[in-house]
Write a structure and sequence with these properties.
Elements lengths: L6 E3 L2 E3 L3 E3 L21 E3 L6 E3 L7 E4 L2 E4 L5 E3 H12 L5 E6 L4 H14 L3 E5 L16 H14 L4 E4 L7 H10 L4 E4 L3 E4 L1 E2 L4 E2 L5 E5 L4 H14 L4 E4 L5 H9 L4 E4 L2 H4 L3 H15 L15
Parallel strand pairs: 3-4, 3-18, 4-9, 9-10, 10-11, 11-12, 12-17, 17-18
Antiparallel strand pairs: 1-2, 5-8, 6-7, 7-16, 13-16, 14-15
Helix pairs in contact: 1-2, 2-3, 3-4, 4-5, 6-8
């Protein structure tokens, strides 16, 4: 029995349910020699800001049991450089191009979204975990009112499908999900990394210069799955699940919880072919269990 792994997402037909998560896959070309990128549902770009950023100083990556803590700091070349130098190559990879967009103020978000829209990306993934520099550094994704404000203004600035990526630090995931959709989000993706800390015993000080950083990897999967379940129950738009997915079975749990598609991130550091492998493992499970398409099992675990 052959299985159908296609996913219809906001008017576009994706080759598969697995999307390479932002910040873990570069701009895609780096992986083209070791895996078939046309099997992927899409590639979410390195997080982009209007102006380029060098990122955080000091330690940037720290392994923990079943996880990885990162303090990259949105290092990126900036929107204009991306459009001129990275986007043309991304468009030739045979999979959907998702531009992950960050910012420190609403004006930067709006300007960047308009530029990406004009450049012809397939989707914009709006990262609202970024600190609002005009409000003391509190992330837009913490309070539904702040999220609603930035999402509504970005929505007005672009015509391409808008995916809003949610932070697990949100006051209430269900309320946050509903607020973003009310403001114009076409879909949601969640979750971003969890705030974490590590101490260097030899130096007797925090590992990271900023003290706190973002935890990802298998350790966060059960919590991410719970939050995706809550988001699916709160909105009627597609929800893309991510957080600790390393196997096809992990991905299928998110699909059964109601996710339209999934993203694989940290696993790519352990196995550069993780996105393709997870897709293949999903297909094998479906074959073995008589499931012809993901539509047959999407949301099946929900009462």
């Amino acid at each position: 029995m052959s299985v159908d792994l296609h996913v219809d997402l906001l008017g576009k037909r994706l080759a598969g349910p697995v999307i390479a998560a932002s910040g873990t896959f570069g701009f895609g070309s780096e992986y083209s020699e070791i895996m078939d990128l046309t099997t992927l549902g899409g590639i979410s770009s390195k997080g982009l800001t209007l102006n380029g950023k060098f990122g955080n100083e000091g330690e940037r990556l720290y392994e923990t049991p079943s996880g990885l803590i990162n303090s990259i700091g949105l290092q990126n070349p900036g929107i204009r450089h991306f459009i001129d130098n990275e986007l043309p190559a991304m468009k030739t990879l045979g999979t959907a191009v998702i531009a992950n967009l960050g910012g420190g103020c609403i004006e930067d978000y709006v300007t960047s979204a308009a530029m990406l829209d004009e450049a012809g990306v397939d989707y914009i993934e709006l990262n609202i975990s970024c600190p609002n520099v005009k409000q003391g550094g509190i992330a837009y994704g913490i309070c539904p009112a702040s999220a609603k404000e930035v999402v509504s203004q970005v929505r007005a600035a672009c015509k391409v499908p808008l995916i809003v990526k949610l932070s697990p630090q949100a006051e209430d995931i269900a309320r946050m999900s509903a607020a973003c959709v009310e403001a114009g989000a076409d879909a949601l993706s969640l979750v971003n990394t969890f705030q974490a800390c590590a101490i260097d015993l030899k130096k007797r000080r925090p590992v990271f210069n900023n003290i706190f950083a973002g935890l990802s990897g298998p350790a966060v999967k059960p919590i991410a799955l719970r939050m995706v379940w809550q988001a699916v129950g709160a909105v009627d738009v597609p929800v893309i699940g991510l957080g600790g997915i390393t196997t096809g079975e992990d991905a299928l749990e998110f699909i059964m919880a109601g996710a339209a598609a999934v993203q694989v991130g940290t696993a790519s550091f352990m196995d550069p072919r993780s996105c393709q492998r997870v897709t293949e493992e999903m297909a094998r499970w479906m074959e073995a269990n008589g499931v012809k398409s993901l539509d047959e099992i999407r949301g099946c675990a929900r009462p």
